[in-house]
Amino acid sequence: MRIDLHTHSTFSDGTDTPAQLVAAARAAGLDVVGLMDHDTTAGWQEAAQAARAAGVRLVRGTEISTMWQGRSVHLLSLLQDPTEPGLAQLLHRNQTSRERRARQMVERLAADYPITWQDVAARAGNPQTVGRPHMADALVAAGVFPDRDAAFAGPLSGRGPYYVRLDVPDPVDAVAAVRAAGGVPVLAHPFAAVRGPVLPDDVVRAMAAAGLAALEADHRDHDPAARAHARALAAQLGLPVTGSSDYHGTGKPNRLGENLTAPEVFEALVAQGAVAVV
Questions:
Q1: Is residue 7, in this structure, part of any structural domain at all?
Q2: Which three-class secondary structure string do you get for the chain?
Q3: In the prediction, which pLDDT does 13 show?
Q4: Do 180 and 222 reside in the same domain of the chain?
Q5: Whole-structure pTM value
Q6: Same structural domain for residues 111 and 51?
Q7: What is the CATH number of the domain that holds 98?
Q8: Which residues span the domain enclosing 100?
Q9: How many domains does the chain have?
Q10: What pLDDT score does 204 carry?
Q11: Residues 10 and 50 in one domain
Q12: Rounded Cα–Cα distance for residues 211 and 201 (Å)
């Protein structure tokens, strides 16, 4: 089985609709694909309908934004109950924070670059999922930068004057919230130093004590040393590791299936979820 548990659609910062994503997964020879849009479950229904028609198994989930001492931490929540009040409220707060932060960043950018909030919001599924990739796309469309990577290396850098920090929960608290909703929490690309300062191992240990289910080891943003570190720490914690593409369509170079999750790990994680794989 070819299993890619971490992808994105137009309901967050991907460029494929959920149906297009499922079609692309089938074309890439995937047996299982995970839809993990940022802080939302809005794409679940469309993706499920497409998956049933295409004969691709779908893992519904969410990539939850969290923060530890100013460091952005992404937590995948697989197969949670989307109606559970605690996690639903957390995601709503994150969406509100995302929109507020996005508007503040665009306001700062617009003082120096030829973009508007309307330019940026038009590139997202809804205002509550606007993120820096949509700002990058607006800057590219305005002819300021050649691609997303260049925009992120410039004004969209987390170290620059245009950056606004998200107001989101602590990762340990988020793990507990995912478990309370019957979800399966997986720490996404935990040692991707290319993205900025990474989490100390002690924080990952605290997340494991709160119910973390796995570490995403095989990811484009993990160099060989980071992959080895993730595997060694996971082994210490008695946790499995996953692999995935973090596919965003044409928005990033990541390709579906470029990293995969072992079938036995997939089955172990699925057994813990509150909702079934489609």
A1: yes
A2: CCEEEEECCCCCCCCCCHHHHHHHHHHCCCCEEEECCECCCCCHHHHHHHHHHHCCEEEEEEEEEEEECCEEEEEEEECCCCCCHHHHHHHHHHHHHHHHHHHHHHHHHHCCCCCCHHHHHCCCCCHHHCCHHHHHHHHHHCCCCCCHHHHHHCCCCCCCCCCCCCCCCCHHHHHHHHHHCCCEEEECCCCCHHHCCCCCHHHHHHHHHHCCCEEEEECCCCCHHHHHHHHHHHHHHCCCEEECCCECHHHCCCCCCCCCCCHHHHHHHHCCCCCCCC
A3: 87
A4: yes
A5: 0.90
A6: no
A7: 1.10.150.650
A8: 93-153
A9: 2
A10: 98
A11: yes
A12: 15
Residue 278 lies in a domain: no
CATH number for the domain that contains residue 186:
3.20.20.140
Confidence label for 160 from pLDDT (cuts 50, 70 and 90): confident
pLDDT in tens, 207-216: 999 999 999 9
Tell me what pLDDT residue 122 has: 86
Q: How many residues can be counted in the chain?
A: 278
* pLDDT higher at 50 or 166: 50
Q: Report pLDDT for 181.
A: 98
What is the percent of the chain where pLDDT is above 70? Answer: 99
Domain shared by 130 and 229, yes or no: no
In a domain, 162, yes or no: no
User: Looking at the structure, do residues 127 and 262 belong to the same domain, yes or no?
Assistant: no
Tokens (6 digits) for 35: 């839809």
Specify the pLDDT at position 125.
Answer: 66
Q: Is the CB of residue 99 less than 8 Å from the CB of residue 121?
A: no
The yes-or-no verdict on residue 119 having pLDDT over 70 is yes
Residue 240 and residue 116 share a domain: no
- Say how far apart CA 273 and CA 266 lie, in whole Å: 11
Instruction: Please check whether residues 58 and 104 belong to one and the same domain.
Output: no
pLDDT at 83: 96
